[in-house]
Design brief:
By secondary structure, the chain is α+β, with helices and mostly antiparallel strands. The protein contains five helices and four strands. Strands 1-2-4-3 form a four-stranded antiparallel beta sheet. β1 and β2 form a beta hairpin. α4 packs across α5. It is extended, with a radius of gyration of 21 Å.
């Protein structure tokens, strides 16, 4: 395969691996380990998912909360039994969160899943601010329903 690739393909890459790139990558890995980023991300993500799940007990538009680390999906539905996607409410929540200083995206075929992806610097101490924005937004939206 390699011989055929070399004969039939012109391949050039400045990112193919050099000492400077390797040293930079190793330095990043050292910082991630030294600052225990993985453990912090896991704890913050679990706290945020748990908090959003607790909000779902009071507002049936939250159909499911899933994810790993700080990559979180919040499924928005018309009701928790049928779990019918609700892209209109999803957009309203996205805009409400934005007004409260929390930026999220949307995804899924129906456009009814909020993508909550805080930066790696996000900690458990930041969770209450995001949950307060979620709660205020859900309260505003339920008043409009």
């Amino acid at each position: 395969f390699a011989a055929t690739f070399a004969e039939e393909t012109v391949f050039f890459s400045t990112f193919g691996g050099n000492q400077v790139s390797a040293a930079a990558a190793l330095a990043v890995l050292d910082v991630l380990e030294d600052e225990r980023v993985s453990a912090r991300v896991s704890a913050a993500g679990e706290a945020l998912r748990s908090g959003i799940r607790s909000l779902s007990e009071h507002d049936p538009v939250i159909g499911d909360v899933r994810g790993a680390g700080l990559a979180i999906g919040v499924e928005i539905v018309t009701d928790p039994t049928s779990r019918q996607p609700d892209p209109t409410t999803t957009r309203a929540i996205k805009e409400g969160l934005k007004r409260h200083g929390v930026l999220v995206g949307t995804t899924a075929r129906a456009g009814n899943v909020l993508k909550v992806r805080p930066p790696l610097a996000f900690t458990v101490e930041d969770v209450p601010m995001v949950l307060a924005a979620f709660e205020a937004t859900l309260d505003e939206i339920s008043a409009d329903r």
